[in-house]
UniProtKB/TrEMBL annotation:
Signal peptide, first to last residue: 1-21
GO molecular function terms noted in the UniProt entry: peptidoglycan lytic transglycosylase activity
GO BP term, pick one: peptidoglycan catabolic process
Superkingdom per UniProt: Bacteria
PANTHER family in UniProt: LYTIC MUREIN TRANSGLYCOSYLASE, MEMBRANE-BOUND LYTIC MUREIN TRANSGLYCOSYLASE B
Protein name: Lytic murein transglycosylase
Gene3D superfamilies in the cross-refs: 1.10.530.10, Bacterial muramidase
NCBIfam families for this protein: MltB_2 (TIGR02283)
InterPro entries the UniProt entry points to: Lysozyme-like_dom_sf, MltB-like, MltB_2, SLT_2
Keyword vocabulary terms for this entry: Signal
Keyword Ligase: no
């Protein structure tokens, strides 16, 4: 994960979060037991709670990685795009635009977000689903981060959201694997965003952001629309749509990269 991806986590701290009863720090298993009570109060079944939380342990590597990643992003825009938007990725992205043209057209009609923006985000986040989606057990990662007192309410909320994904039947627990802060799927949604913005666009009754390309791309567009995306509007720095992309990632350089990549995909 890049430090830019960390920005979405750090800036989420400025948002209001509910108050949870589980106390951070102290004995880890006591904390997990308190989170199990929180989950049950939130309507999560005992079966899901037991299968997810029984035997869960701390992951010291998660905390070590988190501490290493803290700090400001120090690359220029030119340096960053040179590592993220090369000729090969542009060529693949243009092929994806053609391959999924009908799907992307339907998504644009419903959500107002142009195909090149959606495909640019898809490419940057997971190399169009071909890259590493993360291999870390999300429940263990989130429980570890929630127990750490620096951002406990944020990650307690994310842990409950992850359990809700399993409860809804969107993903089985074995597929609840992701990145260092619990991001999931081909466009790396936090569990709370998965619950809030996820769209069942393939019509199978579940929101699957790991395997279903229609769900992945439509959910990405839904996030932007909900954040205030204006159909047909400009998306470069200074525009309303550039601000709407703050819900995706608050780092200006990352949003500029999305716009740059989208322009290249559109032949501009």
């Amino acid at each position: 994960m890049s430090r830019l991806r960390l920005a979405i986590i750090l800036c989420a701290l400025t948002l209001s979060t509910p108050t949870f009863a589980a106390r951070c720090g102290g004995d880890f298993q006591t904390f997990v037991s308190a989170m199990a009570q929180e989950a049950q109060a939130a309507g999560i079944s005992r079966g899901v709670i037991d299968s997810a939380l029984n035997g869960v342990t701390q992951d010291p590597g998660v905390l070590a990685f988190d501490r290493r990643q803290r700090g400001t992003f120090n690359k220029t825009f030119e340096q960053y795009i040179a590592t993220r938007v090369g000729p090969g990725r542009i060529k693949t992205g243009q092929a994806m635009l053609q391959r999924h043209a009908s799907l992307l057209s339907r998504i644009e009609q419903r959500f107002g977000v142009p195909p090149q923006i959606i495909v640019a985000i898809w490419g940057l986040e997971s190399d169009f689903g071909k890259g590493d989606l993360g291999r870390m057990p999300v429940v263990r990662t989130l429980a570890t981060m929630a127990h750490d007192c620096r951002r406990t309410e944020l990650f307690q909320g994310e842990l409950l959201a992850a359990l809700k994904i399993v409860q809804r039947g969107d993903l089985p627990l074995r597929d609840l694997v992701g990145a260092y802060a619990g991001e999931l799927g081909q466009t790396q949604f936090l569990p709370s965003s998965y619950i809030k913005y996820g769209v069942d666009f393939d019509g199978n009754g579940h929101v699957d952001l790991r395997h279903s390309i229609p769900d992945v791309l439509a959910s990405t567009a839904n996030l932007l629309k909900t954040a205030g995306w204006r159909a047909g509007g400009d998306y470069h720095e200074g525009s309303a749509n550039f601000e709407a992309m703050r819900e995706w990632n608050r780092a200006t350089i990352y949003r500029k990269t999305i716009g740059y990549f989208a322009d290249r995909l559109a032949g501009r």
